[in-house]
């Protein structure tokens, strides 16, 4: 088997994790691209501390045509990343999109054919610690739509280190992840608290009320989220380590724009489009837009 040329765009929390995961397969040759050059990142996975050397290009340059480009940037980064897409996506390059939100293919359709783009959902909380490392909270789970292109992507990974699930109903899986990220993320970001807050009843009740609103919008959009979802999520947040953060809280802490449009924002918008009332989510979405002055 020949080596595969794989590019990873956006070497932050998820990009670093994917660099590690894809680097475990010695048939992969990795090319790293990001806004800021760093020479190394430390990943804490279970009790192991892994120092990952990084060779990042911060300006697009044409390496060999990539077989895969893995995009690990946030929705609001896309408008500043067009030069990367133009340069890195060749006629035969397959693109894996990893980010929270919906309609992951949309912004990339002008660069390649729809059949070359693979959407994904990642359940892999990764957070920056006081010891300057990314801590991976549990074994990463990657959810992919059942398809040939997804199967071919999964062969690049070592499934001892990442759990891969193929789903028929990707829309439902996307809404399930969005609901968790928007409900948990907004509560943590607005309170400035980590998951320890969920040992209290009132924040848990707010989390449930938010999920109830979000599920109504998801159902109006055609997702088939079942009744067992909410108790499952409550169990999940209660089981998170008390110091578990979220990507919106980390961005707020660092004074960076938060991902409000891709999370609570899109839910409010779709709620309006479908005539579904989402008063709690709308209030939180409004407050979130004011969290970071660069967002308004
Ligand atoms: N972190 C988490 O636990 C989880 C995150 N997600 C989702 O994954 C996605 C990625 O999140 P995450 O990895 O946390 O984000 P990060 O902010 O940690 O990483 C994004 C990276 O992209 C780089 N970048 C931003 N804009 C550009 C650009 N124009 N050109 C090149 N590089 C750019 C950033 O550079 P710089 O270093 O200069 O900022 C940063 O290194 C999000 O949608 C998030 O919601 C999903 C599950 C869990
Ligand atoms: C689900 C959650 C909150 C896990 O960290 C997430 O996806 C995020 O932080 O963006």
Automatic annotation (TrEMBL):
GO terms for biological process: pantothenate biosynthetic process. It is an enzyme of class 1 (oxidoreductase). The keyword NADP applies. InterPro entries: 6-PGluconate_DH-like_C_sf, 6PGD_dom2, ApbA, KPA_reductase, KPR-Related, KPR_N, NAD(P)-bd_dom_sf. Coiled coil: none annotated. The keyword Oxidoreductase applies. Keywords: NADP, Oxidoreductase, Pantothenate biosynthesis. This is 2-dehydropantoate 2-reductase. It comes from Flagellimonas allohymeniacidonis. The lineage of its organism: Bacteria, Pseudomonadati, Bacteroidota, Flavobacteriia, Flavobacteriales.
């Amino acid at each position: 088997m020949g080596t595969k040329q794989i590019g990873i765009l956006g070497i932050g929390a998820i990009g670093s994790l994917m660099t590690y995961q894809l680097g475990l397969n010695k048939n992969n040759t990795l090319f790293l691209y990001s806004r800021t050059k760093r020479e190394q990142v430390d990943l804490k996975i279970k009790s192991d501390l892994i120092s990952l050397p990084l060779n990042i290009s911060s300006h697009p340059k044409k390496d060999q045509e990539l077989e895969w480009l893995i995009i690990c940037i946030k929705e609001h980064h896309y408008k500043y990343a067009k030069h990367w897409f133009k340069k890195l996506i060749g006629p035969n390059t397959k693109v894996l999109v990893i980010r929270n939100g919906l309609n992951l293919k949309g912004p990339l359709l002008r660069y390649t054919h729809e059949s070359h783009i693979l959407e994904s959902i990642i359940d892999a909380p990764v957070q920056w610690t006081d010891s300057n490392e990314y801590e991976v909270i549990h074994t990463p789970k990657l959810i992919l739509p059942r398809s040939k292109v997804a199967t071919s992507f999964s062969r690049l990974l070592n499934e001892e280190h990442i759990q891969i699930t193929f789903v028929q109903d990707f829309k439902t899986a996307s809404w399930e992840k969005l609901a968790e990220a928007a409900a948990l993320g907004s509560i943590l970001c607005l309170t400035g608290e980590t998951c320890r807050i969920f040992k209290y009843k009132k924040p848990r009740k707010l989390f449930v009320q938010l999920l109830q609103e979000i599920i109504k919008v998801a159902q109006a959009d055609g997702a088939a989220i079942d009744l067992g979802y909410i108790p499952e999520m409550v169990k999940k947040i209660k089981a998170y380590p008390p110091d578990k953060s979220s990507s919106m809280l980390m961005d707020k802490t660092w004074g960076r724009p938060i991902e409000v449009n891709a999370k609570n924002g899109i839910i409010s918008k779709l709620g309006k489009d479908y005539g579904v009332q989402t008063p709690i989510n709308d209030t939180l979405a409004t407050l979130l837009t004011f969290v970071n002055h660069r967002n308004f």
